[in-house]
């Protein structure tokens, strides 16, 4: 996939991995207890504690007493952009913004892009706490897609779906949920699902997920139309859609009544539907007799 030709989004942020203390050479960090010890030793020997900190950092002079100014959003983005995976996420997200802006305009509406937050390990969201075990997901409360990019490796190694277009499918699927949210589909889903029993809610959830697959295919249709796809990309997307089917993930350990995302065949079929037509009106999984 020629993702380097896609426009990078300004709505993607890198949450970082956190951590406290002071950075030292070689990636080490100096904790608060060590700093207190340095201050005590300095008072005993009459040495400026800042000079000791400076020597620990590898320099001979004192450490500047003024704190470093906070990085601007642009500076943080430039630093994160040095990571090719982060750059990939920004560019695929930017391309989905361009596609859905065009599609919504054709429908006489205005598309409002979601935020996408790349996190590492754990994060807080408008829908509660999340970890990388949660997998990529969309939170309608804060209109944000959350993604730990290690999932791309898991998609390749565990689910046997490698490739950049397979990873792009994951992003486009979550953006598809934002499209549902903006169109009011999620509100209708919640209102209807709350009135049903768990089995009925699961069935509704499957239709919601399959529609997001179809919307991911709509994005793929336009990417192909602009010659951004390469030979084998569509097959990568199909393998990814199939790999994350409930039947493949559970390997028969869960009853189909408990499925929430759809089978491999269903997910592949609806992704192909969007890829073939490029028309979100053909993605009405809720009207289909058997999704």
- Which structural category do the helix and sheet elements fall into? alpha/beta
How many β-strands, per DSSP? Answer: 8
Largest sheet, order of strands side by side? 1-4-8-7
Give the uncertain stretches in residue-range form.
17-68
Gross geometry: globular
SSE order in H/E notation? EEEHHHHEEEEEHHHHHHH
What proportion of the residues is helical, as a percent range?
40-55%
| Proportion of residues in β-strands | 5-15%
Describe this structure in words.
This protein is of the alpha/beta class. It has one domain. The chain is built from eleven helices and eight strands. The strands form three sheets. A four-stranded mixed β-sheet has the order 1-4-8-7. Strand 2 and strand 3 form a beta hairpin. Helix 6 packs across helix 8, helix 8 packs parallel to helix 11 and helix 9 runs antiparallel to helix 11. The longest helix has 28 residues. It is globular and about 50 Å long. 33% of the residues are buried. About 18% of the residues have low confidence.
Topology:
Elements: E1 12-14, E2 22-23, E3 29-30, H1 32-45, H2 49-56, H3 73-80, H4 84-106, E4 115-118, E5 122-125, E6 128-131, E7 137-139, E8 144-147, H5 150-157, H6 164-183, H7 185-193, H8 198-225, H9 233-243, H10 246-250, H11 264-277
Parallel strand pairs: 1-4, 4-8
Antiparallel strand pairs: 2-3, 5-6, 7-8
Quick take:
The chain has helices at 32-45, 49-56, 73-80, 84-106, 150-157, 164-183, 185-193, 198-225, 233-243, 246-250, 264-277; strands spanning 12-14, 22-23, 29-30, 115-118, 122-125, 128-131, 137-139, 144-147.
């Amino acid at each position: 996939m020629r993702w380097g030709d896609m426009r990078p989004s300004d709505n993607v942020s890198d949450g970082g991995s956190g951590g406290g203390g002071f950075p030292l050479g070689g990636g080490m960090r100096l904790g608060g207890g060590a700093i207190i010890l340095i201050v005590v030793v300095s008072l005993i020997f009459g040495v400026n504690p800042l000079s000791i900190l400076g020597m620990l950092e590898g320099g001979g002079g004192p450490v500047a007493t003024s704190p470093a100014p906070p990085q601007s959003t642009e500076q943080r983005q430039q630093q994160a952009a040095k990571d090719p995976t982060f750059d990939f996420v920004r560019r695929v997200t930017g391309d989905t913004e361009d596609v859905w802006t065009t599609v919504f305009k054709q429908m006489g509406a205005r598309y409002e892009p979601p935020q996408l937050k790349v996190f590492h390990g754990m994060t807080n969201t408008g829908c509660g706490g999340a970890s990388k075990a949660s997998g990529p997901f969309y939170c309608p409360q804060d209109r944000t897609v959350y993604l730990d990019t290690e999932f791309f490796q898991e998609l390749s190694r565990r689910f046997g779906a490698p490739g950049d277009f397979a990873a792009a499918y994951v992003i486009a699927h979550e953006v598809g949920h934002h499209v549902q949210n903006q169109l009011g589909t999620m509100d209708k889903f919640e209102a209807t699902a709350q009135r049903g029993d768990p089995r009925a809610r699961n069935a509704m959830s499957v239709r919601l997920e399959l529609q997001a697959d179809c919307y991911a295919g709509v994005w793929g249709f336009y990417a192909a139309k602009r010659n951004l796809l390469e030979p084998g990309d569509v097959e990568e997307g199909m393998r990814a859609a199939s790999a994350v089917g409930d039947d493949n993930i559970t390997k028969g350990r869960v009853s189909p009544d408990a499925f929430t995302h759809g089978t491999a065949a269903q997910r592949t079929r609806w992704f192909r539907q969007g890829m073939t037509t490029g028309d979100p009106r053909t993605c009405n999984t809720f009207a289909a007799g058997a999704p």
